[in-house]
Design a protein that fits this description.
The chain has a nine-stranded mixed sheet, sandwiched between helices. It has about 425 residues and is α/β, with parallel strands linked by helices. It has three domains: about 5-105 and about 210-265, Adenylosuccinate Synthetase, Chain A, domain 1; about 105-200, Adenylosuccinate Synthetase, subunit A, domain 2; about 270-429, Adenylosuccinate Synthetase, subunit A, domain 3 (Adenylosuccinate Synthetase, Chain A, domain 3, Alpha-Beta Complex), CATH 3.90.170. It has twelve helices and 19 strands. α2 packs parallel to α7 and α4 packs across α5 (about 135-145). The mean pLDDT is about 95. Bound molecules: guanosine-5'-diphosphate, 6-O-phosphoryl inosine monophosphate (IMO) and magnesium ion. 6-O-phosphoryl inosine monophosphate binds near residues 8, 11, 12, 227 and 231.
Amino acid sequence: MKNTVVVGAQFGDEGKAKITDLLAQKADFITRFQGGSNAGHTVVVDNKKYAFHLIPSGILYQNKICMIGSGCVIKPDDLNKEINDIVDKGISLEHFKQCLRISPLAHITMKYHCDIDGYSESELGKNKIGTTKKGIGPTYTDKYARIGIRVEDLFDIETLSKKLDIILPKKNKELEFVYHLKPYSKEEVLLECAQYKKILEPYVDFNWQENLSKIKKDKTILFEGAQGVMLDVDFGTYPFVTSSNPIAGGAGVGASMGPFAISEAVGVFKAYMTRVGEGAFITELLDETGEKLREIGAEFGVTTGRPRRCGWFDAISARYAVLVGGLTTVAITKLDVLDKFDKIKIATAYKNKKTGEIVKNYPTNVYTHTDYEPIYETLDGWGEDITQCKTYSELPVNAKKYLSKLEELLGIKISIISVGPDREQTIFI
Ligand code: GDP
Ligand code: IMO
Ligand code: MG
């Protein structure tokens, strides 16, 4: 396998973890490159379900190194809980100590970041983003404001102490006077950092420069994206986005290896669409068809448990995702969820309700999205169970027609089709 990046190509929850877990079989090194525990990634192996948030979805294999890259943000107590939950499912702590690595350059989500995320969301009221309240936005904000705390800082108390003398007066002013929240004393923050150091210590790779140089030279690397192109801070439905770059372009930076370490970008698309949180979603179905998709697809968030909004496949945003996401090939997931639909729709253009104009390029100003309605092409469903299909030729004719239509609209090839949550329920083309 070529070095590959797995990118969510819609609003997240496309089934990226399943695809990462599958491709990880052929990789030596699997690395997350952005996001934090806002992600909720499900991997099903032999009917056993594992939920990952920050740990790369390749962790279930022996002898593969899984890294939380420099572009990620880490809330150590959440990571600790995640590890313990997986240990409870039978994966040993020793396995994590052998296989999990953390970049010293990743940023730490502090308690005050979560306080701010929660508060600013409630203050926004009906204009809220609908974040996961995991402190992601405030952590990245501090990173770019150059007042963040990195993993390596936890291991150098002298520098940390000096940094806190700069960070805390600013942060406390913000907490008290902007958000009316409780300020933090230096002692409290140092104590918090000491606890975090203890949690992260077994996994931090201080020798990362040498290790990554070796890995880059002769190992197969899989880059695992979280969230999705339409939640990307530059290209998504801004401002209703996350605070990082889930696109393939984000992988070179966030995995500390540059763009030429990557040869292939798999864009993962659900056969329909879902979204959690607020923001535009032009093909959203607020009727019983949307309800049926949610029910059959079990569309509830892994991280927050929120019901996911559901709608038909939007080929306009999908084509846009191919472009800005830097996708070279496609995985279609949850095709089986459409088994019981007589008619299946794909949005192939938008119509501006005010002007009548037909639009085929994605309108990047989301505040105009209420002006648009989707123009659908309707295809016949296949009305049979496809969850046991093992090859492309076994798929019903109408399922093949649906896939061909998607391929035509996307302009790049579909190479993976997922017909159920299990590893086995996958068709490679
Ligand atoms: P991710 O965040 O992109 O990794 O996706 P999530 O794990 O949040 O959500 C995808 C959900 O769909 C999970 O519950 C998966 O187990 C499930 N899933 C993945 N692929 C398939 C599929 O082909 N068919 C069905 N029915 N479920 C799938
Ligand atoms: P995975 O990796 C779906 C959404 C939130 C909110 C917006 C910003 O499982 O696909 P944040 O907490 O990141 O500041 O929230 O982004 N969001 C996700 N939606 N899947 C995810 O991750 C998401 N991570 C964040 O619902 O709308
Ligand atoms: Mg998810």
